[in-house]
Design brief:
alpha/beta; binds magnesium ion; binds adenosine-5'-triphosphate; 10 strands; four-stranded antiparallel sheet
Length: about 240
């Protein structure tokens, strides 16, 4: 299968800090790709540049065969790319269903009736495993439920590529299991997922391949088993004396 997302020599600096340095990355259609790297390596920056929230300084980004480098977030979203935020950005005064409905309308504003948006929102909530919370106010959700609503909103946009920034952070073991089940179900449904996750066990068990971001570049992309025991990765990611577990 071909690359759904392709980055060629993408560079992003904040002042003199070159966070992404001529970075190349290919994500294949239908895969779950893990992205790891130490704190501050630039994972969220990379997501922002892919999603269009930040403009890269150089480089080319291609989504499903079309260049999107100069498009903003909304246009990239309508072309099938949605992301979650490390800290959920929900409409807390709205219900869970309304939050997902707004995302459904945002992802497809022109060719969708309200009832279609509601149907898409319910489908997304079910896929994220929080369908039974549809009527609850977003403000009463637990951290784990908020994360799953973030995921549902990304799904509801109609995206085919989901960028998930630490959706498992702060989940209890039961929520973690549900989140893993939801991501596997999404992949089986045809979604492509690029995920940043510090919950290493979940990331390693879900990802087909894992890419490692360090010093502005992807230093390795391989199956989780090989990444976990590669000395370059343990050095970059956790320091010399510890393993990735
Ligand atoms: N808007 C910004 N302005 C200036 N510096 C920034 C900005 N955003 C991020 N940085 C810096 O860029 C570097 C990468 O940050 P980023 O948040 O992308 O890392 P990360 O890999 O997501 O880290 P974490 O694992 O802690 O979430 C950090 O040194 C950070 O301080
Ligand atoms: Mg981050």
């Amino acid at each position: 299968m071909g690359a759904l997302l392709q980055l060629k020599e993408v560079t992003k600096a904040f002042g003199s800090l070159r966070v992404l340095d001529a970075l190349d990355l290919d994500i294949d259609q239908g895969e779950i790709r893990g992205l790891i790297g130490p704190n501050g390596a630039g994972k969220t920056t990379l997501f922002n540049v892919i999603a269009g929230a930040l403009r890269g300084d150089q480089g080319v980004i291609t989504l499903d065969g079309s260049e999107v480098t100069r498009l903003g977030c909304a246009d990239r979203c309508r072309r099938g790319l949605a992301r979650t935020f490390q800290v959920p950005k929900l409409f807390v005064g709205m219900t869970v269903l309304e939050n997902a409905e707004v995302a459904a309308l945002f992802g497809n504003p022109e060719h969708q009736s309200r009832s279609e948006a509601v149907a898409r929102a319910r489908w997304a909530l079910d896929l994220a495993g929080i369908g039974e919370l549809a009527g609850a106010k977003a403000s009463v959700l637990t951290t784990g439920q908020r994360k799953m609503l973030e995921l549902a909103r990304a799904i509801a946009t109609g995206a085919k590529l989901l960028l998930l920034d630490e959706v498992m952070a702060g989940l209890n073991p039961t929520e973690l299991q549900h989140a893993c089940d939801s991501l596997r179900a999404l992949q089986a449904t045809g979604f492509t997922i690029l995920m940043v996750e510090h919950v290493m066990q979940a990331l390693m068990s879900l990802s087909h391949r894992v890419s490692v971001l360090f010093n502005g570049k992807i230093i390795m992309t391989d199956v989780p088993e090989r990444v976990a025991c590669d000395p370059r990765v343990t050095e970059a990611y956790l320091g010399k004396s510890r393993g990735v577990a």
